[in-house]
Amino acid sequence: MARYTDANCKLCRREGEKLFLKGSRCLSEKCAFERRGYAPGQHGNNMRRKTSEYGLQLREKQKVRRIYGVLEAQFKNYFEKADRKKGITGENLLQFLECRLDNVVYRLGFAPSRKAARQLVRHRHFTVNGRIVDIPSYSVRPSDLIKVKDKSKSLDLIHSALKDSRGEEIAWLRLNKASLEGELLEVPKRDEIMIPAQEQLIVELYSK
C-alpha cells in the first residue's frame, strides 16, 4: 500500500504552519518549523510568489490531507461521500476524517500523533466493540467502544501519550484512563473539530 515516507517536518514547512504531525516534538525546541519556517528545498527561503485563487484552494486541500495522513485518492473518495450526504459538504468531509479509527485513537490520547495512532492500529493493539480492528480508516460510529487490547495495556507508548496529553476535554468523546477505553458519543459538529481549516476552499477546488 502506498504511504508517505519522507520527513514529516517538510510537510509543515511546505504549508507554512505547524500541522503537529510529530506529537510533543512539535512543541519543543527541536521542531524543524521553529528553526526553518520556510518551504523546503534549495530555494525555499527565497520564494516570494503571489498565490492564485487555485493555489489557495490547493494548499488548503493539501494541508487537511496531510493533517489526517490521507493519500490523494482516499481523500477524494471522502469528498465524494461528503458531497453525496445531506448537509454541508465541507463539514461532512471533516466529520468523515475525524471518525477514522486512527484519528479517534489520537484524540483519546492513546497516541502522541495520528501517525503513531495509525501504527498502533495496524499492529492490532485496539479493539472496537470487543473485536480487533487493524484498519486505520475504519469508520467509528456513535456508541462504539474503543479499547486497548489486554495484552497491549503495558505499552509505554500509550501510557506516555496519555501522560503527555494536554488533558483537553473533547465533548464528543468519553475517555476512561483507568480501563484504557474510550467511546464515540456522537459525530462532532464543525465547531468541535479543532483544526485550522477552511473547508469551503476544498469544496470549491473539487467543484471546478
Written description of the protein model:
With 208 residues, this protein is α+β, with helices and mostly antiparallel strands. Among the domains are: 1-49, Ribosomal protein S4/S9, N-terminal domain (Ribosomal Protein S4 Delta 41, Chain A, domain 1); 100-186, RNA-binding S4 domain (Structural Genomics Hypothetical 15.5 Kd Protein In mrcA-pckA Intergenic Region, Chain A, Roll), CATH 3.10.290. The protein has nine helices and five strands; from the N terminus they run H-H-H-H-H-H-H-E-E-E-H-E-E-H. The protein has helices spanning 8-15, 32-35, 53-68, 72-84, 89-98, 101-108, 114-122, 156-164, 199-206, and strands at 126-128, 131-132, 145-148, 173-176, 181-184. The protein has a five-stranded antiparallel beta sheet with strand order 2-1-3-5-4, with helices on one face. The longest helix is centred in the N-terminal third of the chain and has 16 residues, at 53-68. The protein is globular and about 50 Å long. The two termini are 29 Å apart.
Task: Kindly summarize this structure in a few lines.
This protein has helices at 8-15, 32-35, 53-68, 72-84, 89-98, 101-108, 114-122, 156-164, 199-206; strands at residues 126-128, 131-132, 145-148, 173-176, 181-184. The chain has 9 helices and 5 strands; from the N terminus they run H-H-H-H-H-H-H-E-E-E-H-E-E-H.
